[in-house]
Amino acid sequence: MSAVLTFWPAIVKATLTTLWISWLALVLGGIVGAVIGHARLSRRRVLRWSAVAYTELFRSIPPLLLFAGCYYGLAYTLEIRLSPFAAATLALTLVASSLMSEVVRAAIESVGRGQRLAALASAMRPLQVMRYVVWPQAVRVMVPAATGVYITTLKDSSVASVIGYLELTRTTLLVRETTGKSFEALLIAALIYLALTYAISWLGALVERKFHFVH
Amino acid sequence: MSTEAPESAPRPPILVLERLTKRFGHRVVLDQIDLAVTPGEVVVLLGPSGTGKSTLLRCVNGLEEIEGGRILFEGREVLARSRTVIEIRKHIGMIFQNFNLYAHLSALDNVMLAPIKVLRERRDVVEARARELFRKVRLEHRMHAFPAQLSGGEQQRVAIARALAMQPTLLMFDEPTSALDPETVGDVLAVMEDLAREGRTMLVVTHEIGFARHVGDRLIFMDEGKIVEEGSPDGILERPKNERTQRFFSSILRG
Amino acid sequence: MYQFTIEAIASYFGKLPLAIAHTLELSILTILLGLVLGIGGALCRTSRAPVLRLLGRVYVELLRNLPLLIVIYLVYFGLAQLGLRIGNFESALIALTLNTGAYMTEVLRGGLAAIDRGQYLAARAQAMSTVQVYRYVVFPQMFRIIYAPLGNLFISVVLGSSLASVIGVEDVMTWVHIVGNESFRYLEAFLVGGAVYVSLAQLINLSRLLVGRALLRHQAPGARA
Fold first, then answer.
1. Is the pLDDT at C48 greater than 60, yes or no?
2. Residues of the domain holding C147
3. Distance from CA of A96 to the nearest CA of B (A)
4. What is this model's ipTM?
5. A115 vs B: CB within 8 A
6. Are the C-beta atoms of residues B112 and B128 closer than 8 Å to each other?
7. Interface membership of A76 toward B (CB under 8 Å)
């Protein structure tokens, strides 16, 4: 075990990298996902169907194919040579955005139609209705689901190892190759992933409770 | 808006519906409705459920689009998709069957939101008005409660205060007491009666015959999207001319 | 300018059916074995023995929170170090099955929990044996509840099978990688591979919708839609 542990600085760095890229994907994916989620509820059929197509597309492609496409595909085809970090972030963001679009959509729909009618009846413009009535409530509803999406991106970030991005899985594989101690290295990685997902769940529950207190 | 006793000159109608027609797919929900409401009048719409009465209210403030006819509010045409409808909504207050209070805001904030954000009035002015309205609906002690903590009757009274806060010239009530327990119905009707006595113009859809008789100036009986009979409360209730009206009232009064 | 032509990779199409077959083989076996594991897991979690309940809970928590890739590597490399040498297809199958079994456990458990206690009582009161209770009353109702999340799970399995390529299983993902690297026509390879996965996923999706509609039609009149 000690052979693996001598690499602990690299492992710590890799852990932080994993947390960071997953968080980045969550935030960026959240922004894109929010746009798509709104489009999904639009009155215009074109917007609705585009949103559905987008979401379905990224739910039907394996993350590995997406990562490979962003890294190798763009490099070979369009001569866009993204770094492993950029490619991984792009791929993860695409996945996160399709997940978040569903989260946003459900959250908006959970705010009853009646409240929207009442707001419109008070001469509020659609954007005001969103800003003062719908979004404040939707954001609260989204927290548990968004936590789930964060955990999913955390797990999917391990696939970035395949394109050479130095996150936790890739680092673990390198340690494995160097020390020859596969089981210990992978076990430590597994424990770290578990710790991370639990920490995120716990934090998510904390944030959720804080929101409820305001009520 | 207080009424002075005997009006010398007839006031122009505040709301005019000309051959109003509304369809949901192939179903005609409102069939060439003609209606005029004069200022200070309390008009009550009665009739079996599903005959388009609520839809009519929603057409008046442009929440629903119409397929035929015209709606004129204070002389201006109500076009649901246009930007002018926002102006019109500033002068019409709507009270819904399900209250539709904003769940994330306190009662006080519910009442203050639209005047501040839509009418862009100053916060202290709006707050003073809001407090006065809470006094009026007898809920000053519940101003800081959230909708989830209020009973149905309390929520509806807050909803009335919320509509009044915009200082509308027309109040529309869409079955305001249908979702309430019998005990709280009286509280809400009492508030509505106060408003009528103040001389407010009200368009009320309801099943409460007692209210219609005591407070209404004019009763309109609708069935299958058409106005079947129209007249003074006593007139219609005692001597309904139409057979359908007769059937409706006898079933209500019996049940 | 990049010239997009499918013909450029046409020579590789011959190898595609085999790749698809491997993907399907892996997926179908995973689903079947995962179902068995899921039933076991669900029985554990709803069992009266605290040890079994704990076992079930630990299993689910573990496999649902670990990245699938780590599980695959653990099975492939980790077990090899402990002396067990397993082929790459088998390793992938084990890893995928373990992963799927955890999600399957939760789906089945949710389905069971959603059935009203009274159903059991009524069936028992009519002298049905345990087997009959499950066969005629519980499972039919359960299926109605779980067919949708089950469909989603099937799609996850098919997509997840692509990870088997990292340990050398020759599936569609491997095909894309080889074609792309050898011919430099990555876009075409990506699109073809992507089309395969999307088609498989949407096929499962379609089946799920059809099942849903069929179930609705067979609902007894008066029952909740």
1. yes
2. 17-216
3. 28
4. 0.89
5. yes
6. no
7. no
- Which residue among C161, C186, C197 sits closest to A73, beta carbon to beta carbon? C186
State the CATH number of the domain containing residue A128. Answer: 1.10.3720.10
> Which DSSP string corresponds to B119-136?
S---HHHHHHHHHHHHHH
Interface test with A, best of B58, B94, B100, B171 (most A CBs within 10 A): B100
8 A C-beta contact, residue A118 and residue B110:
no
B150-206 pLDDT, tens digit per residue, is: 999 999 999 999 999 999 999 999 999 999 998 899 999 999 999 999 999 999 999
| Residue ranges in chain C assigned as alpha helix (H) | 16-45, 50-65, 68-73, 79-81, 88-113, 117-125, 130-132, 139-160, 172-183, 186-217
Measured between alpha carbons, how far is B67 from A206 in angstroms, rounded to an integer?
Answer: 51
Say if B249 is an interface residue toward chain A (CB within 8 Å).
Answer: no
CATH architecture for segment(s) B15-254: 3-Layer(aba) Sandwich (3.40)
- Nearest Cα of chain A lies from the Cα of C1 at a distance, in angstroms, of 8
Mean pLDDT value of segment C5-15: 80
Rounded to an integer, what is the distance from CA C51 to the centroid of its chain?
A: 27
**Contact across the interface for C173 and A158, Cβ inside 8 Å:** no
Q: What's the pLDDT at B8?
A: 57
Query: Between A and C, how many residue pairs show a Cβ–Cβ distance under 8 A?
Result: 117
CA distance A104 to chain C (A): 20
Q: Which residues in C lie closer than 8 A to residue A153 (C-beta atoms)?
A: none
pLDDT tens digits for range B18-65: 999 999 888 899 999 999 999 999 999 988 877 689 899 999 988 889
Residue A5 is predicted with a pLDDT of 81
Name residues 55-74 of chain B within 8 A of A (Cβ): 58, 61, 63
Is C9 contained in some domain? Answer: no
At A198, list the tokens.
């639990």
The Cα–Cα gap between A211 and A140 comes to 7
Residue of chain B whose alpha carbon sits nearest to that of A211: B104
Our CA-based measurement puts residue B92 at a distance from the nearest CA of chain A, in whole angstroms, of 8
SS3 B67: coil
Domain span at residue A110?
Answer: 2-214
Give the CATH number of the domain where residue C44 resides: 1.10.3720.10
Q: Where are the domains of chain B?
A: 15-254
- Burial class from Cβ neighbours inside 10 Å (0-12, 13-18, 19+) for residue A44 reads exposed
Mean pLDDT score of chain C:
87
| Nearest by CB: A162 against C81, C166, C202 | C166
